[in-house]
Amino acid sequence: MKKQIPLSFQLPELADFESFIVGENEQLLFSLKNESDRLIYLWGKKGVGKTHLLESIAHYYQSMDKSAFYLPLLTNSDFEPELLESLENFELVCLDNVNQIAGDKLWEEALFHFFNRIRESGGRLIISAEKNSHNLDINLADLRSRLSWGITYQLKALNDEKKIEALKIRAHSRGFMINDKVAQYIMKRTNRDLSDLMALLDKLDYASLVEQKKLTIPFVKKYL
After folding, report:
1. 3.40.630.30, 1.10.150.120, 2.60.40.10, 1.10.8.60: CATH of 160-223
2. Pairing between strand 151-154 and 68-72?
3. pLDDT tens for residues 124-142?
């Protein structure tokens, strides 16, 4: 029986492969679903969808009654390196934003030992970062080496057309519609970082529910 570790967070329900716009990342999606790829290192700049994919593969495993653990590594996190102890008992572990702990001696050592344990246990490890493993500011040479053992993918950003498609899918998943003109208006007047666009759309959805109004250009303009 696999040891269960209490979580202080839950995976967002909206994170799944169906709501991910693939763009030029077909091979990456194939590898994520291919369980024979035991170590995947996924990198790309902020906002291209790394977190969405890690949450999605964790949901995918859980939907098949397999154990999965998703851990976001943030500089302001309350998580301690000891959290990595016993995670090798999970069939899948997703470590998001590994670049955040680069240079932290305790975290680097804990991640190095965890890497060895999960490899020995036969578990699967998927890691994300904002840089290629060779360019991370990792001080522990053995850890830097291990991060390059598996398959490495650069997650490619979506073009504007695909971002509009992503906005429409996100809106549909939340139970409302957004037309092309409104989506284009948002794109032209805000940061085009995909994660920021999604966060803005969620806020607009909430505002429209409060005011009982549809997402029109005049309504959006008031909140930008």
Report:
1. 1.10.8.60
2. unpaired
3. 999 999 999 999 999 999 9
**Other beta carbons less than 10 A from residue 19's beta carbon:** 15
> Which pair of tokens denotes residue 10?
């839950």
Give CATH for domain 17-154.
Answer: 3.40.50.300
Instruction: Give the C-alpha separation, 95 to 126, whole Å.
Output: 6
Q: What is the per-residue pLDDT across 11-68, written as a single tens digit (0 to 9) for each?
A: 555 577 877 888 888 899 899 998 899 999 999 988 888 998 999 999 999 999 999 9
The CA angle 44-50-53, to the nearest 5 degrees, is: 145
d(CA 214, CA 177): 9
**Which position has the token pair 């999970």?**
90
Which residues, in sequence order, are CB contacts of 14 under 8 Å at separation 6+? 170, 173, 174
